[in-house]
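> tool_call: predict_assembly(chains=two)
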Amino acid sequence: QSALTQPRSVSGSPGQSVTISCTGTSSDVGGYNYVSWYQQHPGKAPKLMIYDVSKRPSGVPDRFSGSKSGNTASLTISGLQAEDEADYYCCSYAGSYTSWVFGGGTKLTVL
Amino acid sequence: QITLKESGPTLVKPTQTLTLTCTFSGFSLSTSGVGVGWIRQPPGKALEWLALIYWDDDKRYSPSLKSRLTITKDTSKNQVVLTMTNMDPVDTATYYCAHKVYYFDYWGQGTLVTVSS
Protein backbone atom coordinates (compact mmCIF):
# COMPACT_ATOMS: atom_id res chain seq x y z
CA GLN A 1 0.00 0.00 0.00
CA SER A 2 1.41 3.35 -1.06
CA ALA A 3 1.85 6.14 1.42
CA LEU A 4 -0.15 8.66 -0.60
CA THR A 5 -3.66 7.90 -1.87
CA GLN A 6 -4.64 8.60 -5.46
CA PRO A 7 -7.69 7.52 -7.44
CA ARG A 8 -6.86 4.50 -9.56
CA SER A 9 -8.25 6.05 -12.70
CA VAL A 10 -9.75 9.20 -14.15
CA SER A 11 -10.95 10.00 -17.63
CA GLY A 12 -11.96 12.91 -19.77
CA SER A 13 -12.66 13.88 -23.35
CA PRO A 14 -10.30 15.96 -25.45
CA GLY A 15 -10.53 19.61 -24.50
CA GLN A 16 -11.98 18.89 -21.06
CA SER A 17 -10.27 19.29 -17.69
CA VAL A 18 -9.51 16.60 -15.17
CA THR A 19 -8.21 16.77 -11.62
CA ILE A 20 -6.22 14.06 -9.87
CA SER A 21 -6.07 14.12 -6.10
CA CYS A 22 -3.27 12.96 -3.83
CA THR A 23 -4.11 12.54 -0.17
CA GLY A 24 -1.52 12.16 2.54
CA THR A 25 -1.13 13.28 6.11
CA SER A 26 0.24 16.19 8.09
CA SER A 27 3.57 14.34 8.08
CA ASP A 28 3.97 14.55 4.34
CA VAL A 29 1.66 16.45 1.96
CA GLY A 30 0.21 18.64 4.68
CA GLY A 31 3.50 19.34 6.37
CA TYR A 32 5.64 20.50 3.48
CA ASN A 33 5.21 22.40 0.22
CA TYR A 34 7.38 19.79 -1.48
CA VAL A 35 4.81 17.98 -3.60
CA SER A 36 5.72 16.93 -7.10
CA TRP A 37 3.86 15.19 -9.91
CA TYR A 38 5.23 12.77 -12.50
CA GLN A 39 3.82 11.62 -15.82
CA GLN A 40 4.68 8.14 -17.02
CA HIS A 41 3.86 6.72 -20.43
CA PRO A 42 3.94 2.93 -20.86
CA GLY A 43 7.46 1.56 -20.90
CA LYS A 44 8.98 4.96 -20.22
CA ALA A 45 10.65 6.62 -17.26
CA PRO A 46 8.64 9.10 -15.19
CA LYS A 47 8.80 12.76 -16.20
CA LEU A 48 8.61 15.63 -13.72
CA MET A 49 5.55 17.77 -14.47
CA ILE A 50 5.02 19.82 -11.30
CA TYR A 51 7.23 20.63 -8.30
CA ASP A 52 6.86 22.73 -5.15
CA VAL A 53 3.11 22.00 -5.31
CA SER A 54 2.41 24.28 -8.27
CA LYS A 55 5.56 25.10 -10.24
CA ARG A 56 6.16 23.82 -13.77
CA PRO A 57 9.58 22.86 -15.08
CA SER A 58 10.65 24.44 -18.31
CA GLY A 59 8.94 22.80 -21.26
CA VAL A 60 5.85 21.55 -19.42
CA PRO A 61 2.69 23.03 -20.94
CA ASP A 62 0.74 25.48 -18.81
CA ARG A 63 -2.26 23.16 -19.21
CA PHE A 64 -0.76 21.36 -16.22
CA SER A 65 -1.26 22.99 -12.84
CA GLY A 66 -0.95 21.96 -9.22
CA SER A 67 -2.42 23.00 -5.92
CA LYS A 68 -2.71 21.88 -2.33
CA SER A 69 -5.24 22.18 0.45
CA GLY A 70 -4.46 20.68 3.81
CA ASN A 71 -3.30 17.09 3.38
CA THR A 72 -4.48 16.83 -0.23
CA ALA A 73 -2.61 17.91 -3.32
CA SER A 74 -4.17 18.08 -6.76
CA LEU A 75 -3.01 18.02 -10.35
CA THR A 76 -5.31 19.61 -12.90
CA ILE A 77 -4.90 19.08 -16.62
CA SER A 78 -6.94 21.44 -18.74
CA GLY A 79 -7.56 21.23 -22.48
CA LEU A 80 -6.98 17.47 -22.45
CA GLN A 81 -5.02 16.10 -25.38
CA ALA A 82 -4.55 12.54 -26.52
CA GLU A 83 -0.88 12.59 -25.54
CA ASP A 84 -1.84 13.32 -21.92
CA GLU A 85 -3.06 9.73 -21.58
CA ALA A 86 -0.58 8.24 -19.12
CA ASP A 87 -0.08 7.28 -15.49
CA TYR A 88 0.41 10.11 -13.03
CA TYR A 89 2.16 9.86 -9.67
CA CYS A 90 2.37 12.33 -6.85
CA CYS A 91 5.35 12.46 -4.54
CA SER A 92 5.91 14.29 -1.29
CA TYR A 93 8.76 14.95 1.09
CA ALA A 94 7.96 13.28 4.39
CA GLY A 95 10.65 14.45 6.75
CA SER A 96 14.24 13.51 7.34
CA TYR A 97 13.52 9.91 8.38
CA THR A 98 10.98 8.80 5.75
CA SER A 99 12.27 11.26 3.19
CA TRP A 100 10.18 10.65 0.05
CA VAL A 101 6.85 8.93 -0.52
CA PHE A 102 4.96 8.29 -3.75
CA GLY A 103 1.30 7.89 -4.43
CA GLY A 104 -0.25 4.76 -5.84
CA GLY A 105 -0.62 6.27 -9.29
CA THR A 106 -3.61 7.32 -11.40
CA LYS A 107 -4.29 6.14 -14.92
CA LEU A 108 -5.62 8.96 -17.07
CA THR A 109 -7.68 7.89 -20.06
CA VAL A 110 -8.49 10.40 -22.78
CA LEU A 111 -11.78 9.23 -24.26
CA GLN B 1 22.81 17.57 -20.71
CA ILE B 2 22.11 15.31 -17.74
CA THR B 3 21.83 11.59 -18.42
CA LEU B 4 21.70 8.57 -16.15
CA LYS B 5 21.83 4.87 -16.95
CA GLU B 6 21.25 1.87 -14.72
CA SER B 7 23.14 -1.38 -15.12
CA GLY B 8 23.22 -4.70 -13.36
CA PRO B 9 21.87 -8.25 -13.55
CA THR B 10 18.51 -8.87 -15.13
CA LEU B 11 17.96 -12.07 -13.15
CA VAL B 12 18.84 -12.87 -9.56
CA LYS B 13 17.96 -15.83 -7.40
CA PRO B 14 16.04 -15.60 -4.14
CA THR B 15 18.28 -14.80 -1.14
CA GLN B 16 21.00 -13.38 -3.39
CA THR B 17 22.29 -9.81 -3.16
CA LEU B 18 21.47 -7.39 -5.98
CA THR B 19 24.05 -4.81 -7.01
CA LEU B 20 22.96 -2.03 -9.36
CA THR B 21 25.12 0.74 -10.77
CA CYS B 22 23.93 4.15 -11.92
CA THR B 23 26.37 5.82 -14.30
CA PHE B 24 25.65 9.46 -14.97
CA SER B 25 26.93 12.43 -16.92
CA GLY B 26 26.20 16.13 -17.13
CA PHE B 27 26.58 16.83 -13.42
CA SER B 28 28.95 16.14 -10.55
CA LEU B 29 28.09 14.45 -7.28
CA SER B 30 30.62 16.68 -5.60
CA THR B 31 28.50 19.77 -6.30
CA SER B 32 26.74 21.13 -3.25
CA GLY B 33 23.10 20.11 -3.00
CA VAL B 34 23.19 17.38 -5.65
CA GLY B 35 21.92 13.89 -4.97
CA VAL B 36 21.16 10.64 -6.77
CA GLY B 37 18.26 8.47 -5.76
CA TRP B 38 16.92 5.01 -6.53
CA ILE B 39 13.24 4.34 -7.17
CA ARG B 40 11.67 1.03 -8.19
CA GLN B 41 8.44 -0.02 -9.85
CA PRO B 42 7.11 -3.58 -9.80
CA PRO B 43 5.36 -4.57 -13.05
CA GLY B 44 2.01 -2.81 -13.25
CA LYS B 45 2.44 -1.21 -9.86
CA ALA B 46 3.40 2.11 -8.31
CA LEU B 47 6.72 3.85 -7.86
CA GLU B 48 8.54 3.27 -4.58
CA TRP B 49 11.43 5.42 -3.35
CA LEU B 50 14.33 3.32 -2.06
CA ALA B 51 17.42 5.37 -1.25
CA LEU B 52 19.22 8.65 -1.82
CA ILE B 53 22.82 9.80 -1.53
CA TYR B 54 23.92 13.40 -1.46
CA TRP B 55 27.06 15.22 -2.53
CA ASP B 56 28.30 15.27 1.07
CA ASP B 57 27.77 11.47 1.44
CA ASP B 58 24.58 11.95 3.48
CA LYS B 59 22.50 8.83 2.88
CA ARG B 60 18.78 8.28 3.28
CA TYR B 61 16.87 5.01 3.07
CA SER B 62 13.26 3.92 2.88
CA PRO B 63 12.42 2.91 6.46
CA SER B 64 10.74 -0.30 5.29
CA LEU B 65 13.83 -1.46 3.38
CA LYS B 66 16.61 0.21 5.34
CA SER B 67 18.00 -3.04 6.74
CA ARG B 68 18.53 -4.45 3.23
CA LEU B 69 19.86 -1.42 1.37
CA THR B 70 23.25 0.20 1.00
CA ILE B 71 23.96 3.16 -1.28
CA THR B 72 27.44 4.40 -2.12
CA LYS B 73 29.02 6.79 -4.58
CA ASP B 74 32.21 6.99 -6.58
CA THR B 75 32.51 10.62 -7.53
CA SER B 76 35.57 10.06 -9.72
CA LYS B 77 33.68 7.50 -11.82
CA ASN B 78 30.35 9.38 -11.80
CA GLN B 79 28.66 6.33 -10.39
CA VAL B 80 26.23 5.46 -7.61
CA VAL B 81 25.84 1.86 -6.47
CA LEU B 82 22.82 0.35 -4.72
CA THR B 83 22.97 -3.04 -3.07
CA MET B 84 19.92 -4.88 -1.84
CA THR B 85 20.35 -8.04 0.18
CA ASN B 86 18.18 -11.11 0.55
CA MET B 87 16.27 -10.65 -2.69
CA ASP B 88 12.77 -12.08 -2.95
CA PRO B 89 10.39 -12.54 -5.90
CA VAL B 90 8.40 -9.53 -4.62
CA ASP B 91 11.46 -7.40 -5.35
CA THR B 92 10.98 -8.02 -9.07
CA ALA B 93 10.76 -4.52 -10.52
CA THR B 94 12.19 -1.92 -12.82
CA TYR B 95 14.83 -0.04 -10.88
CA TYR B 96 15.43 3.61 -11.76
CA CYS B 97 18.12 6.02 -10.67
CA ALA B 98 17.40 9.73 -10.75
CA HIS B 99 19.19 13.05 -10.34
CA LYS B 100 17.95 15.19 -7.51
CA VAL B 101 18.60 18.69 -6.38
CA TYR B 102 15.18 19.50 -5.03
CA TYR B 103 13.23 16.91 -6.97
CA PHE B 104 13.87 13.82 -9.07
CA ASP B 105 14.11 15.82 -12.25
CA TYR B 106 16.17 13.54 -14.49
CA TRP B 107 15.66 9.79 -14.61
CA GLY B 108 17.46 6.89 -16.17
CA GLN B 109 15.65 4.52 -18.52
CA GLY B 110 15.35 1.90 -15.78
CA THR B 111 16.49 -1.70 -15.61
CA LEU B 112 14.19 -4.65 -15.05
CA VAL B 113 15.35 -7.05 -12.39
CA THR B 114 13.58 -10.38 -12.06
CA VAL B 115 13.94 -12.47 -8.93
CA SER B 116 13.39 -16.13 -9.65
CA SER B 117 15.00 -19.46 -8.99
